[in-house]
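Researcher: Structure for this, please.
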Amino acid sequence: MTLNPASPLRQGLRYIGALLLLAAVGWGLQPLRKHLQQQESEAHLKLPAPDFERTDALSQQLALFGLGGLRTFAAEMLCVDATNAWLQQDWPRARRRWEQITTLCPHRVNYWIRAARDMAKNAVAWVNQSDMLDTHQRAVLSKEYLDTAEAFLQEGIANNPQNALLWLEMGGFDEDLARRTNFTRAVEDYRRAVELGASPMYKRWEFYNLCRIRGREQEAWELGRRLYEEERHRSPSLRCLLFVLQNKLDVPAAQRLTPEQLFGTRERAVKHLRPFQRNDLRFPTTGIREYVDAIPQ
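Model: Predicted structure, token format:
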């Protein structure tokens, strides 16, 4: 019997064939999905279900890959759209994409860092420069994107508590004078990063932030004094801050480092201390003016 191509029976057979093909494809993906799920289980990864908005067509399509075990592939596709959102200055979309990306791959540290930087730097910069916003709107949106950036870093650390890079990124966020500051938390951020294997030079960043916290001068002095014993830590800023802390704490003469010990000569001491006195980094300057003024020009 020959079937008419347009007959209902022929069309029905085609429909059934298409369904069988889709079923076969889904069945073929089962081993890959089970393999990826087993890898996640063996690595003790607790991956939350992706959160996609129903009105987001791209998310709906990529959700199939995410639920099927191809989370990294779906995340990379969303990264492409996050970049497009950045190019188009569409920050709500960029934020939504990074939320989806980090949900899909919470143990990819780079995603958390990129998400936080996109919000704290790119989105905030656009807000502050936009002619379409008034002063109040800028303040509100700027705070909103900074809160989002902070949340990305905190969630990233919660998912990857042993990763030094995230702690360093959090330290940089907390001490950034151009945005918002939390010097107390920055001290702990850098301390934790070094404990987890970051370069020991970041102990100096811990010291710098301690110096900015009123009431912790003694702790700062003790740390700075230990750091000074290592040549690699003897930066001009550390030398100036040790000079200042000695004055602020009224350290006994026998325990002090003289200006000649810190800087080599009195002339070099003045050369470094005079500009430091005018620093805009929120560092204390106790005793600098008196010392500089007492030296003949």
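Researcher: Any notable elements?
Model: The mean pLDDT is 83. The two ends are 114 Å apart (CA to CA).
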